[in-house]
Write a structure and sequence with these properties.
Elements (H helix, E strand, L loop, with lengths): L2 E10 L4 E3 H5 L6 H8 L3 E3 L9 H16 L8 E5 L10 H8 L7 E4 L5 H14 L5 E8 L12 H4 L5 E10 L5 E9 L7 E2 L9 H7 L11 E2 L1 H22 L9 E4 L4 H10 L11 H4 L6 H11 L8 E8 L3 E8 L1
Parallel strand pairs: 4-5, 4-6, 11-12
Antiparallel strand pairs: 1-7, 2-3, 6-7, 8-13, 9-10, 12-13
Helix pairs in contact: 3-4, 8-9
């Protein structure tokens, strides 16, 4: 059984900064309201004409990760792409990345686990490497939320939260025993699926049916729905459980955590988890204040930024944890 290590990290966010004050010009909201409830001050949005898309941003992050890993694109054995906002209904973004990177042929797999997407993608890549099937795997999380949000007062409770961006990691086989990904832990609870969802257009509720059911346009199922308080309560419970599960599986405890990087869903969730585990500010990395919730991209963006800022050193124990639509949640324990 091989060990999987992260050989390179990269991130990309659009240049277009959208502040809370900018949003207040489109909807009945203000900086104080958004900051108090989410901790977010600004986020990045794709701007029309800037050439970005979910796949394009993923490629930009991937190129940085590949350069830092000192691994050629032609040495990539598998691409795993996590997103809830693909460029097309089909094909998935994985094959777009393969084409844009000019990789001759390689398998490309798309993961649709929303906010938990990067953890799920990381786990899939880890298993392929550990079993010896593949040596180098490119894992990407990327989101274009701004293309599908309701920027009116009706949609403000959701639209103020999300931002665009991408993060990538190059995973490779390592013989260093005890260093790299120690374990991953995945869960789901489908009975709450519609508490955080986007129901249409879909094969279950296609455009003609939407128009027929909503002649006045009052009910718009192609915008995201979130039962905020219910999601919050479940998130703080599952975050705690899956972090403890990962620690216990590796004979570790909270005192061993050098850096916790939670999915950037809401700063209040991260602060609750930090308080519960009695972690200092130096032991938790948050950047939702700058980027908003970038769903599958949030953990790789935060992980990359923490590494770039010298917050992660060799031998550190990292805990990655996420919770989101599905409900799905998961964690990864890594010795850097």
């Amino acid at each position: 059984m091989y060990q999987t290590k992260i050989a390179g990290l990269g991130k990309y966010v659009p240049e277009n900064i959208v502040t809370n004050d900018d949003l207040s010009k489109k909807m009945d909201t203000n900086d104080e309201w958004i900051t108090e409830r989410t901790g977010i001050k600004e986020r990045r949005h794709i701007k029309k004409g800037d050439g970005n898309s979910t796949a394009v941003m993923g490629v930009k992050a991937a190129k940085i990760a590949l350069e830092r890993a000192a691994i050629s694109k032609d040495d990539i054995d598998l691409i795993v792409f996590a997103t809830l906002s693909p460029d097309y209904y089909f094909p998935g973004c994985g094959v777009q990345v393969q084409e844009m990177l000019e990789i001759d042929t390689c398998p490309a797999l798309d993961v649709r686990n929303q906010c938990s997407g990067f953890i799920y993608a990381l786990s899939v890549a880890d298993q392929f490497i550990k079993t010896g099937m593949y040596k180098n795997v490119l894992v990407i999380g990327s989101e274009n939320h701004s293309g599908g949000l309701d920027f009116t007062t009706r949609g403000r409770s959701v639209s103020v939260i999300f931002g665009d961006g991408a993060g990538a990691a190059v995973l490779t086989r390592s013989d260093h025993n005890g260093q790299g990904i120690l374990s991953t832990h995945l869960h789901s609870e489908g009975k709450h699926a519609l508490e955080l969802s986007l129901k249409g257009p879909s094969t279950n509720y296609w455009v003609p049916e939407i128009i027929a059911d909503n002649p006045q346009g009052d009910d718009i199922p192609y915008y995201p729905y979130m039962n905020g308080q219910f999601v919050f309560k479940n998130a703080i419970q599952r975050f705690s459980e899956v972090i403890n599960e990962g620690l216990q599986a590796n004979g570790l405890d909270v005192d061993n955590i050098d850096m916790l990087i939670p999915h950037q869903a809401n700063l209040r969730i991260s602060q609750f988890v930090q308080h519960k585990f009695k972690l200092s500010d130096d032991q938790v990395y948050n950047n939702i204040q700058k980027y908003g919730n970038t769903t599958a991209a949030s953990i790789p963006i935060a992980l990359t930024e923490a590494w770039e800022n010298g917050k992660i050193e060799d031998g550190d124990i990292l805990v990655l944890a996420a919770f989101g639509s599905g409900f799905t949640w998961g964690s990864a324990i890594i010795r850097w």
